[in-house]
Amino acid sequence: MVAYSEIKASNALINDATAPRVAVFVSGTSGIGQLTIRVLAATGASLKIYLIGRKSSFERARTFIEELHSINANANIIWTEGEVSLLSEVRRICEVIRTKERHVDLLFLTTGYTPFGSRSETSEGLEISQSLAYYSRMLFIRHLLPLLDNSEAPRVVGVLAGGMESASIDLDDIDLRKPGNFGPMKAQPQFCTMNTIGMERLATDNPHITFIHSMPGWVATGNVWRGVDDPNSYIGWFVWLILAPLISLFSFTEEESGQRHLFQCTSAAFGGRGTHWNGKAGVNSVGGRENGLFLVGYKCDCTQNARVISVFREKAQEKIWDHTLEVLKPYI
């Protein structure tokens, strides 16, 4: 556990030398992405932030950008519209960024939601929540690797459920297409584990980059409703009467959530590069302390989840990664 007071003290040290000069926030118009951008801007550092969101988010994003400019006149916020559940859109957005930038210091990924309803596919044939929570994230990383490699201290932070991996993921139905195989109890562990598998593989192939798979804990962002098809269904009533009140009762404040994720984005506690850190150094998924993949819990401490990860590293990693590359191949 990293005390909140220590996190705020670390974040107070962020300046032009240690802040991510060019950052890409995928789904930063609401939720944890927005909260993290707000506290990052409040550091006063010179920043360029690509704020990626859907067309329907534009008005909300415009108000947010105005707020950020009032907080930090040195923050250059670039609204970048795109429907990132579509891999073709991910490729297009990355091409735009690559034409404008020589390096990217931070890639922050928060896309996805818990699918309480039935399976729903994009026009590209992928289940929407899985595309958001996994495939589009992997594609963003793959396309922006050259720019991340050009950074002095590149970092990729994916917010989902780091440390909550399951050894019982379905390798015979990776995309959960079989009848009755899709639902929140099976989809969420599947997406989480696939993220850790994919990010660990990318970390191994790109040792210059620090990767973090974060479990944020409960934050009352309202996004829990996105996965509910019908608010008058049993699931809708469950979310309204039980889940949403529990989240509100036990969640972090918006400020604390933003500060904790800013710490993950900038602190030398993870990989040794970033804002100076005198505390205990994090241990990555293979037991090292320099770069690699860090599984970071909601209290900002690291876990190796060694018992589970050692199993899927041996039995599932190659199959999951080969399947991932096959899905992404038309968009690389």
UniProtKB/TrEMBL annotation:
Entry-linked InterPro entries: NAD(P)-bd_dom_sf, SDR_fam, Sec_Metab_Biosynth_Oxidored
This protein's record includes keyword NAD: no
Molecular function (Gene Ontology), one example: oxidoreductase activity
Listed name of the protein: NAD(P)-binding protein
PANTHER family given in the database record: ALCOHOL DEHYDROGENASE-LIKE C-TERMINAL DOMAIN-CONTAINING PROTEIN (PTHR47534:SF3), YALI0E05731P (PTHR47534)
Swiss-Prot/TrEMBL keywords: Oxidoreductase
Taxonomic superkingdom: Eukaryota
